[in-house]
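Hi Prof. W.,

I finally got the 2-dehydropantoate 2-reductase prediction working! I wasn't sure whether to trim anything, so I left the full sequence exactly as given:
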Amino acid sequence: MKIAVLGAGAIGAYVGAALHRAGVEVHLIARGAHLAAMQQHGVRVLSPRGDFTARPHATDSPSEVGEVDYVFLGLKAYSYASAGDLLAPLLGPSTAVIAAQNGIPWWYFHGMTGHPLEGHRIEAVDPGGAVTAVLPMERAIGCVVYCSTEIESPGIIRHLEGTRFSIGEPDRSISPRCVALSEAMIAGGLKCPVEKDVREDIWIKLMGNVAFNPLSALTRATMVEICDHSDSRSLVAQMMAETLTIARAAGCDPQISIEKRIDGARRVGHHKTSMLQDLEAGKRLEIDAIIGAVVEIASLTRVPAPTLRHVYAAIDLLSRTSLVS
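And this is what came out:
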């Protein structure tokens, strides 16, 4: 098995190090000081489950790597459409792409045989078909990340919690390529269940992201601060309830309690969401996949979702008026 990690940041380098430890041929594609440190010293993982160092090949040139069996995408979803030149040298006739992204993926309605929206393109995450042109639907393997990591310093990954990477085919099949990837991930010390319908995991994780990410950016508050403020906690609950209604209208029925989901977020403590971190760093906000696509699906399925629409309007304006890189 040969795997390239395109965008070997905190999550990508952690996955790559785990797979390399399992004996997989891994190629990390990154840039800057982080790349230089990985080339010189390997990837050092600091984890409550045990520290380790792995030394997979690291480069900034996909052409050095060539065709692989799998590409693990560690890029933000808004970068997919412009990643064609990086992806092209890695893609062979049967290369699969694992899109480890937050929010609604570009392939969401692909493979939903019998569903009224089967094959529908979601403009928010695939504008004008630009992502599909780079990443054809048949290459996609869905992936939902339940893992928290950060780059402590170049080449050093701090693993905070979670090791689960749920994967699944858009057409709900249990494919040999998913099974083989799962076995490799498990051999590297990760959890990697192959789900019959990974969309349920997408919505369960999205329930938290769709509420806490934009609200934290708008208020500069941490997870626990949002949960402990009675009015903002109520706002989170309203956004989650609307998200569940949209999920069910779109053909998925996540089995989770809203209060349980909020309490789980509160236990994370004084954590800044990725959207708040990006805002503070002057980076582009990842709003299209996390909330824009949800609002678009609400329109497609005729779900009112007023709270989501209002919060989306506010975070969209913030993203347009903030510095981006």
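Strands lie at 2-6, 25-29, 43-46, 52-54, 57-59, 68-73, 91-99, 140-153, 156-168. Does that look reasonable to you?

Thanks,
D.
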